[in-house]
User: Which sequence fits this backbone?
């Protein structure tokens, strides 16, 4: 009689006179029960389940079973039964009201009132979580292996941020070189050199007296590019002054490349790039992009008075030390 939409097990609405081993009343939304109807059933087993049964309905069912020949009550998928058992209740012949042999192993033949549903649900919940935890562990392990290199890189950056790193400085100072500062510039930028850079060097770095300002101070008697190479390789620091006009000049780019080649050969960051103005992306030469992408030192000139003070402070700092190239740390 399962799934028959039975709502009332009363003498007026329900009559069952058959003699059978099992009466299946699952999937019926039972709302009221007459204990005498249950007591009159000639069955050995009564099966309930699926639909939620109220406290009053269950009480009347148990009362009727206590007066009948029913030996076994089976409740399937009765999670609501836990709430019912937790409520105060009184059973007639409570010692004979036991869990059937078809119940879970810890409950078999155990008196119903001795069942602790909370403990049982905790155990079942833990058993349910074990396979989920195993699946989660496998998924996490696969993801960790797949992204292992990215994770190592992030951990490396975190270590640098937390612990830092030691800067490797070149042991030589400007007195160990033939020239103190070499300035690579485009001829049209000579005004900025004459009005801004020369006075600043004289004021802030008076010890730098052997300076090369552009082509006019190159070594005489040598081929042009050979002289450029000689001055770059024998200078403590080299300043490359970039402007929109400079990056359009073929000879300027060759001198810039010469300086960059010596950075790679000596593994020393002795080149400082000064941007006199913003250079549009479509005019920026590949060599300058490569320089910036490698995280090399550069400074941007500004017309703001306070900004210029910061500019000269940073330039002075860059001109007084030479750092060794460190390929173990990421580019800034």
Assistant:
């Amino acid at each position: 009689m399962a799934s028959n939409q039975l709502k009332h097990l009363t003498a007026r609405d329900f009559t069952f006179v058959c003699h059978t081993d099992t009466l299946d009343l699952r999937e019926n939304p039972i709302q009221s029960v007459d204990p005498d109807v249950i007591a009159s059933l000639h069955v050995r087993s009564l099966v309930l389940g699926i639909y939620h049964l109220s406290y009053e309905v269950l009480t009347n069912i148990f009362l009727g079973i206590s007066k009948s020949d029913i030996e076994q009550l089976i409740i399937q998928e009765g999670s609501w039964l836990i709430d019912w058992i937790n409520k105060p209740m009184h059973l007639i012949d409570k010692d004979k009201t036991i869990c059937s042999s078809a119940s879970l192993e810890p409950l078999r033949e155990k008196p119903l009132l001795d069942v602790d549903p909370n403990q049982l649900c905790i155990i079942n919940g833990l058993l349910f979580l074990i396979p989920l935890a195993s699946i989660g562990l496998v998924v996490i392990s696969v993801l960790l292996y797949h992204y292992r290199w990215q994770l190592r890189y992030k951990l490396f950056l975190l270590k640098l941020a937390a612990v830092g790193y030691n800067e490797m400085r070149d042991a030589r100072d400007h007195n160990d070189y033939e020239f103190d500062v070499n300035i690579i510039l485009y001829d049209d930028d000579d005004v900025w050199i004459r009005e801004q850079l020369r006075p600043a060097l004289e004021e802030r770095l008076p010890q730098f007296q052997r300076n090369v300002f552009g082509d006019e101070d190159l070594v005489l008697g040598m081929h042009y590019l050979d002289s450029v190479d000689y001055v770059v390789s024998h200078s403590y620091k080299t300043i490359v002054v970039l402007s929109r006009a400079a990056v359009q000049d073929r000879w300027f780019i060759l001198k810039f490349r010469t300086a960059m080649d010596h950075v790679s050969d000596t593994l020393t960051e002795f080149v400082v790039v000064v941007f006199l103005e913003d250079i549009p992306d479509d005019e920026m030469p590949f060599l300058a992009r490569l320089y910036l992408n490698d995280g090399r030192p550069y400074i941007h000139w500004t017309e703001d008075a306070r900004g210029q003070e910061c500019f000269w402070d940073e330039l002075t700092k860059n001109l007084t030390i030479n750092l060794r190239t460190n390929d173990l740390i990421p580019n800034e």
Remarks:
- Residues 174-324 form a domain with the Rossmann fold fold (CATH 3.40.50.10140).
- Residues 29 and 51 are 6 Å apart (CA to CA).
